[in-house]
Amino acid sequence: MCGIIGYVGSRPCRDLVISGLERLEYRGYDSAGLALPNGDGFTAVRAVGNLAKLKAALEDVAGDATSGLGHTRWATHGRVTHDNAHPHFDQGGAVAVVVNGIIENFSSLRRELQAEGVVFSSETDAEVIPHLLARAYEGDIVEAVQKVLPQLDGHYAFVAMHASEPQRLVGARHECPLVVGVGDGETFLASAIPAFLRETRDVMNLESGEIVILEADGVTVLNGQGPIKRTPETVDMDDDAAEKAGFETFMLKEIHEQPQALYDTLGDRLRPDGNVVLDDFGLDDAALARTERVHIVACGTSYHAGLVGRYLLEDWAGIPVHVEVASEYRYRTCLAGPGDLVIGITQSGETADTLAAMRVARERGAHVVALTNIMGSQATRDADGVLYTRAGLEIGVAATKTHTAQIMGLALLAVKLGRLRWALSGAGAADLGDELRRLPELLQQYLDSPHPAAVAEVAQRYANHRFFLYLGRHVGVPVCFEGALKLKEISYIPTEAYAAGEMKHGPIALLEEGSPVVTVATDGHVFDKVVSNIQEVRARGARVVAVATEGNEQIAEHSDDVLWVPRAQPLLSPIIAILPLQLFAYHVAQTLGLNVDQPRNLAKTVTVE
Ligand code: M6R
Questions:
Q1: Shared-domain flag, residues 126 and 201
Q2: pLDDT at 342 over 90
Q3: Does residue 604 carry a catalytic annotation?
Q4: Is residue 598 part of a domain?
């Protein structure tokens, strides 16, 4: 959470910093700011709101400084105000700092500094850093950072500059991410690679605990022992992903990118005979075959993908699967151990709770694999193995294409484990392989059909309801959880999602005349049961919107509106059934005039617990 960027070089950098922040805005957008050295301290501009506000505030500011730092904030400590926006400064205005993360012992540090006469100008935890650096400064900002780091507890990354050393930036990271971009006579430091991808593809990753010194013509990395050698690697990433490509929003573009994301995630991993090859998994086939249990840990949408994965792994591989939100898993007694496979699902590879849960399981001796979309992310570095989704950069805060790609990744694993454990025959695996291969085309057909427009029309009619209940059974349950999450996070309408069989145990009391109930009623062995639940809610006056399989005319009799999807293998139906629910949430939010790419209070990457 929060995006930070720094630049040192020879080009005027105000616009470079802003362009970097634009590519980091998905990490937080409640306020933003930058600091540019001006020969007599810093020119600092901060603004509440998204980057458009900062840009407006910058109109009269000279842009000729050749170094600077910027920040886009997701508030943790301190309200969303101008004073709490970064950069923060010491009292003399000589030290400028931008911070991502949390300084957990900030209260005691703040008291200590106040006792020495320091006056704080914000409510943030971050502001202790510039004051500590100013106190430690004896003419060298690097030495000051080295003195201050042992005083800080928490998980953070920061970039600091001293006004009397304006051609030098110092960065430090403890758990939160920080990457270096090495250009020709210029260097960048940022929370994520896209921030500087337009300028350079030569990247250096930093490890937790390291300090980095940036100058125009070079980068020095230090660990506790002194300087260490680090060579930049050239990354193969697509900068176009940061553009909307003619779509109104990133979310809509990313919904439409799902066929490609599935196609790329399959890649050449699935062989014609149904064999699955997972490079980088970190376990050979014999060891994988001996796996006794699978634990899946994740948050939010990734957790919902994990819930779908459980059905696939249990059914196709006959292996027991435990799925849990990472924020709970990390604090329970962990019973994973050698022989267990723990999968941390995190599209960003940075979610603090998921990383912590993976760490706990790894310490217990389990084999830990990161299922992630971001190459080189922290999850990939903390895990024993990696299974990449290849969905391309996802910018919309509401996850869409990474969700379906995660299910595809889990499906591949389920087929592989199924073969290794003899739960699937060769022919069975080949048939499932055909079903998986069909999915990208199926999703494309759906997106090219009249169905999405029909979803928009239904969504516009329902947009003014103040509560939605989502009901489904079996694999339809996680689809409901995910559909309901999409609606609440971008439209702010309260939703409940339940296993339909649980409805009579409480949630049915919420229904009144006209209450909308969204049901996942795709074809499968629980279809008739779902229809019975639909009857029960309609008997109480509810209006039913059903996601159903094309050609199943029976459902039309039982529902007020139907969102049709093409037929898929029943266990894979979540990959297609979620599309109308993503679009439904999207069009409700659009009808209400909300910013779907930047929903309030949220950030794309949750690096604090
Ligand atoms: O990067 P991760 O997959 O670890 O993120 C997990 C959640 O924060 C994320 O899925 C969140 O729930 C999304 N906003 C959902 O749209």
A1: yes
A2: yes
A3: yes
A4: no
